[in-house]
Amino acid sequence: MSTVTLTIENAIAFITINNPPINATSHSVRSGLVDALDQIDGTDDIRAAILICEGKTFIAGADVSEFGQPPKPPILPDVIKRLEAATKPVIAAIHGHALGGGLEVALGCHYRIADSKAKLGLPEVNLGLIPGAGATVRLPRLIPVSEAISMITSGKPVSATKANEIGLLDAITHGALGDAARDFAKTILNRETPASLLARDPIDAPSSAQWDDITSATKKKARGQVAPLAAISAIRNGIEHGAGAGLAFEREKFIELRDSDQSKALRHIFFAERSVAKLPELKGVEPNPIRQVGVIGGGIMGAGIATASILAGFDVTIIERDEAACDNGRATVEKHLSGSLKRGLISQDRFDALMASLSTNIDYAALSDADLVVEAVFEDMAVKHDVFGKLSLHCKADAVLASNTSYLDINEIAARCVNPRRVIGLHFFSPAHIMKLLEVVRTDKADTKSLATAFEFARALGKIAVPCGVCDGFIGNRIMSAYRKHCEYMLEDGALPHQIDAAMVEFGFPMGLFAMLDMAGLEISWATRKRLAQFRDPSERYVALGDYLCEMGRFGKKNGLGWYRYDENGKAQPDPEVDALVIAESEKKRITRRDFTSTEIMDVILGAMRSEGDKILSEGIANSADAIDVVMVNGYGFPRHKGGPMFMTVSD
Question: Which pathway does it serve (predicted)?
């Protein structure tokens, strides 16, 4: 079947693309579009054309199978120029997503109409690229330059409503898209065909001083990523030097970025996120249906899990120890959803419906119909055993029982549970209703049905699910523990906390290790160290500075004192008292302190990550190096444009 077909209805031609799943701009689509336009221009009876797509979406990107291959003509920029040169007006009828080259195709059309639920965007910067088929030149001539800059440098799609407000669309429909496009076409048959976007002037172009401010702000947000700055250069060039020069400059930058290390890293993590959860053993395994979800514990983590679950459409029951704790859990969920309501992400009706789907109880019998239960209580094995004993007693036989433990042995938890085949780990990251990463921990006895159900649950929550085996800390926390240990060595050897953190931020992390520990709460890692103390090799170097801080009552940002001192606005400042404590510990251990450069600090940190990652792979805890990269990028702030610690190992 052809990927592009042409039909004619009463002087209106329908160009239909059918290239599932995303109607990508493959070679067959590109050549099919050119052939259809040639036929339309050569048929006098046709007065207008509608470009529309089958399936769930408009054109939502490029054909990934063509990545890395020499381009086959007609290339997309030439197809879009052919659209602009059509002698009959062409209307893009958009539903689902118009992304990347798909939106660029729509920009080549004379008009754009969209379904009210459609989203339009240029996500190329997320792959270390800029648009390569003219969007940096055309978009600022259709919508205000500031809006074009926002769309292109952020990579975030806009809603149809927003697109209509800024002039990206000519109309929105709440009805059948094909019918609306046909009706729209009839209204423009006697109009003069609009000039192509390349022939128009930019809208509200910035002054030279404003360009400098825009570039500075973009550089700050980019944190070392080059594509957003290249996008600014391309947009500015197209405005200041004209459309023709702008197109040539854009194409040059696109090709330069396409071959860059950053783009290779971003493409690596993009594909890794989409493949890491595809386990061969789960192929053909049907997950259990999930309608009701239980959450044990309504604290910060439990309430976050409950929020994510009700947003995904599940009925949720939180189990707590008493009514006061139940009320607190419900209030926390309500607070999360109220934030979404205030930001306009959900309506009042939606808010009310979501809160109605949440219940709380102190009796585990309320979980008798739950399909999946997530335990999120204190990190204490005795407490966990008590919880799972009650779940075994009250939950139905095929309910999947999951622990959100960060470090404890889930095999031991499962061993004490009736039917251990249904026990798994679901390690959420805080805040659980926002963070995308979810480690799915496979216990030794977990069956494929339970695993398939867990991955389906993760998909419903919109999480990036990474499979892993059982060990202390799983993938992410185990690697973090390894590089934290080496950062603590550097403290004793001559570095200070703010110097290590500054090196990490310069590298591309959103915050440094010690600032992150302060944010999480120092007592959490302190409890883990005390739990593992009996197993510690006496000959292993141990740094007690974190213990000293906790003994001094310094638990982090929550009480204003941790590795840093926090002012009334929560802003961190290096604390001379902590620096003195660090230096005194070096003197106590008779360690001669030395200076560390930022490069030396990052070499130590990356080396620790890679070394521990290699151990995790050799032990079979992670299925692939990709899994480790996905965890570190999505859960621990590793800069996305560097691809992850294991990718950097290969690249280096």
Answer: Lipid metabolism; fatty acid beta-oxidation
